[in-house]
Amino acid sequence: MSFKSLLVACVLLSGCNGMPAAYLQDPVHDQAFVVHSSGPLPLMLMGSAVQWNEDYAVTVKHVPYLSGSVHQGKGDVQFFRRKAEKAPQWRQFVPGEVLTAVGFNSLYVPIKGQGRALAAMVRLDARDNVLYGTHDGPTAKGMSGGPVFAADGNAVGINVAYLTRGDLQALKRKDLADQPRVSIFMPYSEIAREWRRFEAQQALSATTRLAKAD
């Protein structure tokens, strides 16, 4: 089994790292919400998501056939249409700061796991050249696509997966050798890059339509 296939299996079947804690209500963490697959797999697969701006939200692209999806990135990210009155503030994470991963488990219970951002960045697929952030907090199945918040309430990324010690050994990363497992998130910088790519595609499409109209 390839490392990429192993990663997908971890995400879809095994869940993620450790034992996150349930919570009842929190004005910051309540910005996470549930998403489902549609189309040929209606409601069969679920994940979590968070608002990107007032018109679009963001989640992982391994939640397939997502209603309203407008752009899937090179990495594990997609944007979809969703109106909201407000969205979190976004920024890049800082290694060493406390992060809280938020989302929902398979029973639709809101859960969160807290840890510290690690300095190590990882590539899950060499072909897409996407760098993912790492932290040592717990995450669980269903949280993929949910937000990762810093202590100041700013969103710094979205949950993607976890890597076990065996996965880390396969990567041959000495900087992660002492970690039993790490949680993986797509950081703001990579999400923003995909958003700019989407905006560029939209602008090109608009220009093409105008040219045809002329």
The rounded Rg comes to 17 Å
> Which structural class do you get from the secondary structure elements?
alpha+beta
What is the topology, as strand order, of the major beta sheet? 7-8-9-12-11-10
Which CATH top level class fits? Mainly Beta
Rounded mean pLDDT is 88
Count of spatially separate domains: 1
> Main beta sheet, described?
6 strands, antiparallel, barrel
Please bin the fraction of helical residues.
Answer: 10-25%
Number of helices: 3
CATH architecture identity: Beta Barrel
Write the H/E string, N to C: HEEEEEEEEEEEHEH
Commentary on this structure:
The protein has a single domain, classed as Beta Barrel (Thrombin, subunit H), CATH 2.40.10. The longest helix is centred in the C-terminal third of the chain and has 26 residues. The N terminus is likely disordered. 40% of the residues are buried. With 214 residues, it is α+β, with helices and mostly antiparallel strands. A hairpin with a 4-residue loop joins strand 10 and strand 11. It has three helices and twelve strands.
